[in-house]
Amino acid sequence: MSKVFVLDASRKPLNLVHPGRARVLLKEGKAAVLRSFPFTIILKAAVPEPAVVPLRLKLDPGAQTTGLALLDDASGEVLWAAEVSHRGFAVKAALDARLLVRRSRRSRKTRYRQPRFSNRRRKPGWLPPSLESRIANVLCWVARLRRLCPLEALSLELVKFDTQAMQQPEIEGIAYQQGELLGYEIRAYLLEKWGRACAYCGKTGVPLQVEHIQPKAKGGTDSVSNLTLACQDCNQAKGHQDVRVFLANKPEMLVRILAQAKAPLRDAAVVNSSRWILYERLKTEGLPLETGSGGLTKFNRSRRNLPKTHWLDAANVGVSTPASLKTREVVPLLIKATGHGSRQMCGTNASGFPIRLRSRHKVHHGYQTGDLVRAVVPVGKKAGTHVGRVLARASGSFDLVTTSGRITGINHRYCHPVHRNDGYAYTKGERHERAA
Asked: Bridge partners of 229?
């Protein structure tokens, strides 16, 4: 299972320990809980010359979720894993809502304000706030893990697919291009481009085959712009027919497939551009940084017969991946970026008119909205122990959002902090039972 982070009395990171060992240290009074997520204990005595094992953090950045895996390169053991869910779409929705409010306010002429969009200048390396948020999440967790464990190296999946290597065979030699890895690069590209579905019937969740839109027998090429994905039935039905003959009775589908085959992969291009920014910022951490492609990640994972999850993809990033990965019983930590609340001081309705004012004070009676607390209510209808996220109010009557629902009217005196709000929500993932 996932190991526990350990710090000595001077907060120097030590080797991760088994949860059973951490439990013994806590029971004997030799350590105390420092953080609940990720679970970290701090020893009550300093260790003069600790023998620490250097670890490698592997990252698999994604548009919505980033996988993290902490490995011991020598033993191949995955010590800790996590999946960070980003809030890029929420950031984009909030900015769009603010844009509508400002524009509607100008059109009503309730307040004159000249548009400033023509005067704005963007700094070099500027990214949209939605992508900047994703990069900030990754950098935040790299910095946190550096404080909690002896981190000595990083591995980053830099691009989804090695497009340069696909277009220029001489870049790494002909053996690289004609080997098994090329097939993984192309399949990764096609799966992303065609939405992991058959181009002709739309089936998903079935084995998909790489298919030539224009058959080679009819003059087609092996270019990725002439490739698509098809299920076995559609691939056999099409055979060596020209796509225009095969789809003669489905003109709308024909137009869609021909247009999609020529269209660039815009979403992947956006993600790839943000990954280069992430690469440059990770270089400033001063740690050795290894990179790899998504095709190589899939190649490594398939060779080790591992299921596809974000954290297992991260564990297989780069050529440094050990021949045997020990992933048995690892329980990933699921991290969801929630932000630190809104800075909007005036709430508006759908038409943009102000309807309420927000308090400038976030902390009430020692708690702020988002703190994870344990409420022990002695008497009354809500008697019992409840654990959840608190909605703090100046009145001292809090609401608690738990896994079983929302509990209202909890007095602040019954609350005890478990984990302070740090902009993330935490849950446990599913245990990985199978060993590679």
From this structure: 210
Cα–Cα nearest to 274, from 138, 165, 132: 132
Report the CATH number that the domain containing residue 382 is assigned in CATH. Answer: 2.30.30.30
Task: Retrieve residue 210's tokens.
Answer: 């790489």
Determine the Cα–Cα distance for residues 248 and 146; give it in Å rounded to an integer. Answer: 59
C-alpha distances out from residue 339 to 91, 242, 364, 389, 434, Å: 9, 52, 19, 14, 35
Cα-Cα-Cα-Cα torsion 316, 317, 320, 321, nearest 10 degrees, comes to 0
Q: Which residues pair with 153 in a beta bridge?
A: 56
Phi, psi values for residue 35, rounded to 5° = -140, 145
In a domain, 250, yes or no: yes
Instruction: List the domain range (segments joined by +) for residue 374.
Output: 360-420
Residue 274 contacts residue 134 (beta carbons within 8 Å):
yes
Residues pairing with 375 in the sheet: 386, 415
Overall number of domains in the chain: 3
pLDDT, tens digit only, all 436 positions of the chain: 689 999 999 999 999 999 999 999 999 999 999 999 999 999 999 888 889 999 999 999 988 899 999 999 999 999 999 999 999 888 988 888 888 777 776 666 665 566 666 667 778 778 888 889 999 999 999 999 999 999 999 999 987 655 544 444 444 444 333 444 455 567 777 887 788 889 898 888 888 888 888 888 777 877 777 888 899 889 889 888 888 888 888 888 888 888 888 766 555 655 666 888 899 999 999 999 999 888 889 889 989 999 989 999 999 999 999 998 999 889 999 999 998 877 777 777 777 677 888 777 889 999 999 999 999 999 988 999 999 999 999 999 999 999 889 999 999 999 999 999 999 999 999 887 654 4
Are 416 and 389 a contacting pair, CB within 8 Å? no
Amino acid identity at 101: V
